[in-house]
User: What shape does this take?
Amino acid sequence: MLHCRAGRFYTGHTDDLERRIGQHQSGSIPGYAQARHPLELVWSQEFPTRYEALCAERRIKGWSRKKKLALIRGGWEQISRLAKSKSSASTSSARTVLKVEQSVLSYLRAEAERAHPLEACGILLGTEGRIGRAVACANVHPSPRTHFEIDPAALIAAYKAAREGGSAIAGYWHSHPAGAAVPSAVDQASASRDGRVWAIVAAEALTFWRDGEDGFEALSYTQVNG
Assistant: This one.
């Protein structure tokens, strides 16, 4: 995490921290941080995989300024209090019925059937309250019959497209070829807790969930056309 001019923060991930900081300092990387010098590295953490680093990046980007400052200071108790406060404040909005395009529902069921007996997975595009499009991505997990991992290259490309004015990433989807349409123990363990929507397809069932800081919450949804 970089501290930028006017007290702003920039969060990203990289395979080479020292090299990337140098690039940001020299202004050779276009984007948010380039126009907000001077820059100072205020927080970093290593992760076992690029996917985990990307998950952490998008989770932290959604945090409030107070929560980011608490992270920089290592104030984990304050982060916990702020998370609970945010959860309480957003309870009513979480109950809002999600709108999903009919074409998205059909697409998810078709892709799940096509990938069977492997888990299908991908990205949901739209807004917080409406899912307008779904995209299938490669499942790169070494055990695709029982697990899924969205191709990191596809995720990075989707986030880049969103930053350049494309459709926002509203959430993610995957199938359970031999399970129920509810978050599994593996899903619970791998969730980012970033507030995004998850769709799960199992046989004829299709459910939607909010990946909140306190765990998954079932979402009601309604089909819309156009």
The CA atoms of residues 121 and 174 lie 4 Å apart. The first strand starts at residue 2 and ends at 3.
